[in-house]
Amino acid sequence: MGLLILTAGLMLFLGMHAVRIPNDQRRSGMMARLGKSKYRTFFTVASIVGLVLIVYGYGQARLDPVFVWSPPAAMRHIAALLMLFSMILLAACYVPMNHIKAKLQHPMTLSVKVWALAHLIANGSLADIILFGSFLVWAVLLFKTARRRPIPMGFAGDGPTKVGTLMTVVVGVLGWLIFAAWLHVHLIGVSPFGR
């Protein structure tokens, strides 16, 4: 049952976030039909419901896991390193005037891609493969689509600076340390380093 709930949540959440992948005009058409306010309300509610189903379904599936493979211990260390890059990419979304965002344009999507890959190689249950595999496929497709769209005017703001880039790396590393050393085990119930 947990796997079914997880799959339903992924279909709803990622489906809502994949509207622009086949055709950017699809979202514009839906927004025109429903109105911007109604579309945003529908998008938000559907996304929250999908996320709740993902969290609940994954939690239920972990109670009685179906193991597909047993990742080597080294994968956990590789995943930890990948997560460092993922957190730096995530920080690049929010720290202003950094070279990472200016160069990559879509660091959030790349952060999700690296996060999903890291967890996919370090976990071997069916629920993990469904969850992280789905996010990885979605992020790959979305990034490919996003790179084809024109960069909005004023995207880079005042232009990237060395200070902005340094702050991005510092924030990313600090976020990684806090999450790896403390938050992950408290929120997920698993220590990234197996302690």
Q: Quote the distance from N terminus to C terminus.
A: 30 Å
Oligomer: single chain
Shape: globular
Count of extended strands: 0
Helix content: over 70%
Percent range for β-strand residues: under 5%
Order of helices and strands: HHHHHHHH
* Class by SSE composition: mainly alpha
- Enumerate the spans where pLDDT stays under 50 for 5 or more consecutive residues: none
What is the radius of gyration? 18 Å
Number of domains: 2
The overall average pLDDT, rounded, is 90
Q: What does the largest sheet look like?
A: none
Helices, by number, come to 8
Helix/strand layout:
Elements: H1 2-16, H2 24-34, H3 36-63, H4 73-94, H5 99-104, H6 107-122, H7 126-148, H8 162-187
Helix pairs in contact: 1-3, 1-7, 2-3, 4-6, 4-8, 6-7
3D structure, described in words:
The chain is an all-alpha fold and 195 residues long. It folds into 2 domains: 1-64; 67-195. Helix content is 75%, strand content 0%. Helix 2 crosses helix 3 (36-63) and helix 6 packs antiparallel against helix 7 (126-148).
